[in-house]
Amino acid sequence: MTGKATLAISATVIFLFAAWVGISVITFTKTAEDDLAALPLEEGIVSYVIDGDTIILSDDDTRVRLIGIDAPELGEPLYAESRAFLEKLVGGRVVFIQRDQTDTDPYNRLLRYIYVGTTLVNEEMVRGGLARGAIIPPDTRYAARILSAESSAKREHLGIWAEQ
Fold first, then answer.
1. Is 145 a catalytic residue?
2. In principle, which of 60, 105, 113, 119 could form an S-S bond with 98, CB 3.0–4.6 Å?
3. What is the pLDDT of residues 14-27, one digit of tens each?
């Protein structure tokens, strides 16, 4: 019997035994680190936060629109809070940006997911109730994560969802 076959049989026996005696079996799931490794990332430093879903990178004043979210615009309720929350997350920091399917929007802004370390900023904006999920195909790589974050913010009546 090969080493791989022995390992597979051993793992199966352990799993069945654990299930029989009622022991929880640890399963391995995809992590944020796996997401970061999935596609090439670009690095930049945030020089300015325009609003809760748009930033400017310091390299050449590149404008970046966060994919999958829609934050309040100037003059709308929670605009200042949304902008301040994003500023706290990314302002002046090194970020990693990741493309999905679409490169730019009609305003020639890059469409990207933004990471600080392993934190998906797009998701955090929605989780804090300071942006809504706005999934627009074909850019759906993290749709489930963003929509789950929105459900959590709604359940906890955070930000945008405070009075609903």
1. no
2. 113
3. 434 444 444 333 33
What Cα–Cα distance (Å) separates residue 86 from each residue in 38, 48, 60, 79, 158? 24, 10, 20, 11, 16
* Global pTM exceeds 0.70: yes
8 in the same domain as 50? no
Active site residue 73: yes
What's the Cα-to-Cα distance from 47 to each of 33, 60, 82, 140, rounded to whole Å? 25, 10, 17, 27
Helices (H), the chain: 3-21, 32-38, 79-90, 121-127, 143-155
My answer on whether 36 and 19 are in the same domain is: no
**Are 20 and 76 part of one and the same domain?**
no
Residue 93 a catalytic site member:
no
Q: How long is the chain?
A: 164
